[in-house]
Amino acid sequence: MFGRSHVKVILIGNSGVGKSVLMNQYVNHRFTNQYRATIGADFLTKEVQIDKKTITVQIWDTAGTERFQSLGTALYRGSDCCLLVFDITSPSSFLAIDFWRKEFLVQADPPDPAHFPFVVLANKMDLTDRQVPQQQVQDWCKAFNALYFETSAKDVINVDEAFQSAIKLALKNQKESSLSEMNPIQLSSVRSDAVPKTSHACSC
């Protein structure tokens, strides 16, 4: 388990918040203004260096519409970190991240949901008509222990930083999950060794 050199991160949020363009900017260093709704899901891979180790990152971009929610279990399972994306000009997209977080935890069913890593991306920072106050986002992230980045795929603001942080959290989550899987076995072994063996020798 410790030797795994790949992680899976997933972007979720309402349609139109910029999940696809963030993924493409990070992986391909490419931006387009042409909006194309993701059908079901899409993914890209990228190799990165983390602590002198090569990590293959699989980044999943999901459709933000209700008609594709039935795909959630298959898409979310196996994720090591989840990026919740909203549009700073759309208050409803920010309010929706609470729904998406709960939906992810139900569908992905991680072993330790209380400590599963989430990263919140306040996207489209290149736009001037911001309608979601920064303090409101910070308060939400504090309540759910989530990292927070203000991003723009167009102006390349905090894109690399956000994904690099998500990857590091994903690796940490993998390691902690591995430890939690190993500990019951190790504990059982220690306990069995600690129990004195019954002596069959007669002391009379």
Automatic annotation (TrEMBL):
Q: Which SUPFAM superfamilies match?
A: P-loop containing nucleoside triphosphate hydrolases
Q: Which InterPro entries match?
A: P-loop_NTPase, Small_GTP-bd, Small_GTPase
Identify the SMART domains for this entry: RAB, RAN, RAS, RHO
- Keywords in alphabetical order: GTP-binding, Lipoprotein, Nucleotide-binding, Prenylation, Protein transport, Transport
Q: Which GO terms describe its biological process?
A: endosome to lysosome transport; phagosome-lysosome fusion; protein transport; regulation of immune system process
Q: Please state where this protein is localized.
A: Cytoplasmic vesicle, Phagosome membrane
GO terms assigned for molecular function: GTP binding; GTPase activity
Q: Which domain of life is it from?
A: Eukaryota
How does this protein lie in the membrane? Lipid-anchor
**One GO cellular component term:** lysosome
Function as written in the Swiss-Prot or TrEMBL entry:
Controls vesicular trafficking from endosomes to the trans-Golgi network (TGN). Acts as a negative regulator of TLR9 signaling and can suppress TLR9-triggered TNFA, IL6, and IFNB production in macrophages by promoting TLR9 lysosomal degradation. Also negatively regulates TLR4 signaling in macrophages by promoting lysosomal degradation of TLR4. Promotes megakaryocytic differentiation by increasing NF-kappa-B-dependent IL6 production and subsequently enhancing the association of STAT3 with GATA1. Not involved in the regulation of the EGF- and EGFR degradation pathway.
Which family is this sequence assigned to? Belongs to the small GTPase superfamily. Rab family.
Q: What is this protein called?
A: Ras-related protein Rab-7b
